[in-house]
Amino acid sequence: MAATVLAQLCVRTALRKIGWTRTLGLGALLLGLPALPQALSDHLLPVLLTTALRGAGFGIVTARGLPPPPPHPRSRTPRHCLPVRRTHSETQP
């Protein structure tokens, strides 16, 4: 649980440094790759380490698994971001 929360707190920094695709890929790798060693060992330390790695992967995937939603149509958009409306005379050839 601690590894998941710590990974979620680090996602914003990872997004800035390595980008959305690589961050999500890292999360998927951390979530999936340690599964095999975890299944093969019954000792406490390897199970705890692989569980922490998988928790970090889960934290990354859940923090940035989907792209950010588009802004709500009624949200306050800065004036310079609004689309330019063309008059009828500008659209006619």
Task: Looking at this protein, list some descriptive labels.
93 residues
The outline comes out as: elongated
From the N-terminal CA to the C-terminal CA, the straight-line distance is 63 Å
Residues in helix, %: 55-70%
The secondary-structure class comes to mainly alpha
Strand content: under 5%
Summed over residues and divided by their number, the pLDDT gives a mean of: 81
Which secondary structure elements does this structure contain, and how are they paired or packed?
Blueprint: H1 2-18, H2 20-32, H3 35-40, H4 44-64, H5 88-91
Structural features, described:
It contains five helices and no strands. The protein is mainly α. The protein has a domain at 2-64. Helix 1 (2-18) packs antiparallel against helix 2 (20-32), helix 1 (2-18) crosses helix 4 and helix 2 (20-32) runs antiparallel to helix 4. The longest helix has 21 residues, at 44-64. The model has no long low-confidence stretch (mean pLDDT 81).
What can be said about this structure in brief?
This protein has 93 residues and is mainly α.
